[in-house]
Every structure is written in C-alpha cells, then in structure tokens.
C-alpha cells in the first residue's frame, strides 16, 4: 500500500459538454475532474485549492467509508467547513476496499455545476476479483442543464417555486450532444446528424474493444436528477458489483442506474466484429424530455466512424416501474459476503413528503426539512457547542394516521437542523417510506445515499410499511450498498451497524431534493473521533477552537 498525492485546483471554466458552450466547474482544467486510480489499502492525499472567486467548496468521496477519518468525508456543515476561495484543504484518507466509486462537490449545488470525477480502487497486490476480465472501460454518467446552477438554486428557493425542469442532455464521461444526434436517421422528432472530427469537447468517447474478449464496464451515476437506463445493442451484461460490493452475477439486457449508484458489468464481445454497436442511455422514472445519450462500441478492426445501421436500443417506458423493480430486486450479495445481524436495536421510520414551509416548497422527513448549520456538526459535537444546531432530535416515526396515497392534509412543515444520535456499534433499521407529493396522484423515485457506511437492503414493499412486514426481510443474502431507491408509494428497508464514529449525512441523492431539505444526519460515537485537522473546523463557533 502506498500514499498517492494529488494537487487539485477547482475552478470555473468554459466547456461545451453537450456541444453548447457554458461554464462548468472543473479540476486542473479538466471536466469531469481527473480519474483517481488506487489500490485497496492505499492512502489518498488530495490537496484541494479553491480557485473559485466567490464560493466555498468541498469534495465528498462517494462510497468511501472514511473509517477513522470522518473529517475527510467532504460534506459542508457536517464534516467540515467549506474551503474558502484562495484556501487549500488537505484530504487524507484510506481507500480500504476495491470498488467503483466517484467523488463530487457537496456544497450547495456544485455537483450539478460539474464538480465530479471517477475514483476507482483496484484490488490490493496479490488479491484477485472473483471474476475474470481482459480489459476495462469506465463510464461516468451525469445530466446537464443549460441554466446555470445559481439560477437553478434561486428558483428552487423562491416563492413561487421554479422547478429546474428536465436536463437538456445526459453526459457520458462529460460528453453529450444537444443539437444533433449520432443516430439522426432514427430520431423522432427529426434532428440533424452530428458531424464530429473527434476533437470537439462533446464528441463521444468511443469504446474500443477487441472481439472475443470480456470487458469490465464500470458504470457510475452522479446525475443531479435523472434515473437512467443503459443498454448495449446486441449484448448482454452480467452484473458483478454494486456500490463497491460483489453481487451474485446475473445477466441483463439493460441496466437501471440511479444517482449515487455504481455497477460493474461484464460484457463479452461475441458479436459480429465487422460492425459497431450502439450504447444508449435513456431517462427513466420521470416523463423524459431529454434525448437519449449515445456512444459506440467499436469492434476492432472496424472503423470507429462506422455508424450502426439499425436503431439504438430504446429505453423501457419511463413509468414501467415493474421493470425497474424487477431489476433492483434481482440484486443479491455474492455468497460469502458479510451477513446482517439477525436483529436490530432500533428502528427509524422516515416518511418522505413534499411540503411547504411558510409557503416555500420543501421536502421533509418526518415533517422536518433539513437546514444545515453554519458550524459543522462534527466540531459542535466534539466540543459540546450546544447552541450551534437544534438540540431536539427529529422523530423516529411519523403519525400512523398519515395517508401516504394522497397529498398531505396539513401541508405545513418545519425546518430544522436536529440530528439522530445513534449508539456506537448498535444495529439500526431504517425504513424509508415514500408518499404522495403535493400534486395529486404523483409519487417520485428517490435514491437515498448513506455516508460512512454500507447498509444491507433487506427488502422493498408497496404502500405503508406495517408491523409484521419485517418478517419478509431478506436476512440471508441481502446486497450491501450505499445507495438504495424508494419506489413510488412504497417502502425500502435498510440495516446498518453504526460502527464508524463521526457525523454522517443520509439523504436523497437528487441534488435539488437535498437542496430542498430531503436529508437527515446521523451522529455516532463522536467522543471516539481522534484529532481533527484544525482547518476542517475554521468556521462558525469552532472557528477559534484549538483542538
Ligand atoms: Cu454522493 Cu451526500 O453524496
Ligand atoms: Cu429525492
């Protein structure tokens, strides 16, 4: 194992992610940011300099559990202070486990602005993956709006509310096409054929493969909003990894991926090598207004410029939830994976509702819409600064008379910065309960992501979770993940062991939803947290503490 050092500068720059020029947030002149590649057991040291002129910044290492380094989790107001313009902060943490991960901004809506990149951890020297492959391809998926994030943010926090709308483009490794299509002759409504020389910033990254080999495709989604579905023409994919954990391999024609998730799939290039194949990515779970993203699987020695002669795979209908559920429920842990404790010490039921706070539209969890304090929780708890956030904890359950099938009778909610305090090393069940939004007959998908831990996904159910439903939990081979969705009007049950001292965000990974309060905070064993670098807490009430 070794230490890998990086010097990064975050800045705004001009780019044309989907062939139209806008400003994006990039790192060292790159968008997406540089890919980090490390081996399990390595220590990463990233010196992050903030070259933005008027905004703070932090970076979260999504999927890395930060065992023993909760201050390096990169969540503004939770694990650290935002890094001021002109300042540098040194993240130092261990990547203890192989897997497909990514990193992204975790302050305001900087992820939507383009602050993200891949983080890939290979097995340690001398270790092997439980599957074979000859080559590797990496796809980082995101969505892109032409409206800048500051305008998006103001719209979301205004009354009347202004929704950000659907993304203009879906990007593959930061590249997409807005005003042309690579498969123009199949598109309806008609659109012009893209003409690329290959050096355009939006020219798709062609995936080059040799015939009769097996490739590992690493796919991660850091979308702000979109749920995606990926298909490769004429090829099946065998899913082997989800969120850094091995799963029982299973073959699929197409794969659903929600924001915050990552997968590895194996692809065997056993098709006719004298042609190329489409890779298509479409939007699901919201009425799509975004054209599908396309790139090409290019069999050597066929020319990369040869456009496949047939229509790209079409995404299943956006509201075919049975298709999504079937995929999600076919994911099981690989035999020999850690099993969940048989029982839990505490059950927290979290009702997800859309509400109003003084007329402003928000998302609330058990009727509390999260607002983050100016002093990071980690510092407040470590130093006992009780007036830096609400001392009252949000409730462990919601009023059992609440009808999840309808818009709330009382739509008024409250804002708060209270947190859940969890006993160190206790086992916690979280039941995420979905409900109707403010609009009649609407319930949306939300991918929930937990920091600092993986959880076991014990099960999914329809309508309200009720006493006795725990009998249906899968305790035998539930997948370990860090992100799990709740389907419309349904519930999802998770179990985790609170064995990582620190303060951890648990939230919907749809960035505008988090911005509207859709999250909670779990604190555990903060007294056991060791030295926290002083620069992590140089703001708010911890600003003059010397720890
Ligand atoms: Cu990738 Cu708190 O998120
Ligand atoms: Cu959400």
UniProtKB/TrEMBL annotation:
InterPro entries: Cu-oxidase-like_N (IPR011707), Cu-oxidase_2nd (IPR001117), Cu-oxidase_C (IPR011706), Cu-oxidase_fam (IPR045087), Cu_oxidase_CS (IPR033138), Cu_oxidase_Cu_BS (IPR002355), Cupredoxin (IPR008972), CuRO_1_AAO (IPR034259)
GO cellular-component term (any): plasmodesma
SUPFAM superfamilies: Cupredoxins
Enzyme Commission (EC) number: 1.10.3.3
Top-level taxon: Eukaryota
One function term, GO molecular function aspect: L-ascorbate oxidase activity
Necessary cofactors: Cu cation
Pathway this chain belongs to: Cofactor degradation; L-ascorbate degradation
Uppermost EC category: oxidoreductase
Localization per Swiss-Prot or TrEMBL: Secreted
Catalytic activity entry: 4 L-ascorbate + O2 = 4 monodehydro-L-ascorbate radical + 2 H2O
Gene3D superfamilies from the UniProt entry: Cupredoxins - blue copper proteins
Keywords, sorted A to Z: Copper, Disulfide bond, Glycoprotein, Metal-binding, Oxidoreductase, Repeat, Secreted, Signal
Subunit structure: Dimer.
Family statement: Belongs to the multicopper oxidase family.
Annotated PANTHER family: FI03373P-RELATED, MULTI-COPPER OXIDASE
Role noted for this protein: Ascorbate oxidase involved in a redox system involving ascorbic acid (AsA). The oxidation of AsA represses responses to high salinity and oxidative stress conditions such as vegetative growth and seed production reductions. Negative regulator of defense responses toward incompatible Turnip mosaic virus (TuMV strain UK1) by preventing jasmonic acid (JA)- dependent accumulation of ascorbic acid (AsA, AS) and dehydroascobic acid (DHA).
Protein name per its UniProtKB record: L-ascorbate oxidase
Lineage: Eukaryota, Viridiplantae, Streptophyta, Embryophyta, Tracheophyta
